[in-house]
Design goal:
Distance between the termini: 66 Å
Number of strands: 5
Radius of gyration: 29 Å
Helix content: 40-55%
Order of helices and strands: EEHHEHHHEEH
Shape: elongated
Number of helices: 6
Structural class: mainly alpha
Strand order of the largest sheet: 2-1-3
Largest sheet: 3 strands, mixed
Length: 171
């Protein structure tokens, strides 16, 4: 008998049969025959009783699919499977959007570290209004003796580039 459900985000919540019934009901209402409360209750009972003590959302949904496919209402199973597929695509898109937002934020942080940002140039002036970044741990000081023009197209050779950090200024 299902007691708890492991959600996709890792939370553990109590089992709620009403959620299963609501999902089946929504799929049924998209078919010609409509809702069948007796079948909804039968499937929800069977899933709740035969399930493990703790199951994931996916495992429960897989069981709902199987029960619907065994039932005389195959068209409901098709609607339920189609809805699950749509939700899966939406979740992946949301995850992708969040990932791209993180990349954009990191890219903006790198832009703020540009040497021109600390000058009286328009970009430097605008950065005076940006919120301050938290202190970062000291980075390794690197130096480059010579960069060939093949590395930097349309530029003259650069010698002795040295990156400094706040650690250099503190000493």
């Amino acid at each position: 008998m299902i007691q708890t459900v492991l959600k996709r985000d890792g939370r553990v919540v109590g089992y709620n049969e009403e959620k299963i019934k609501a999902a089946i009901r929504k799929a049924m209402l998209q078919t010609r025959l409509g809702e069948d409360e007796a079948l909804i209750q039968k499937i929800a009972d069977r899933i709740g009783i035969t399930g493990k003590e703790q199951m994931t959302v996916e495992e429960i949904q897989d069981r709902v699919e199987l029960e619907l496919m065994k039932s005389p209402r195959k068209e409901v199973a098709k609607r339920y499977i189609a809805y699950r597929d749509q939700r899966s695509i939406a979740r992946r898109a949301k995850t992708r959007d969040i990932f791209l937002e993180i990349i954009e934020t990191k890219s903006n942080d790198i832009t703020r570290e540009n040497a021109n940002m600390n000058t009286d140039s328009p970009a430097g002036m605008m950065m005076k209004f940006a919120p301050p970044r938290p202190a970062m741990p000291c980075a390794t000081v690197t130096s480059i003796s010579t960069i060939k023009t093949t590395t930097l197209p349309k530029a003259s050779p650069v010698s002795s580039i040295r990156s400094t950090t706040s650690c250099d200024m503190a000493s």
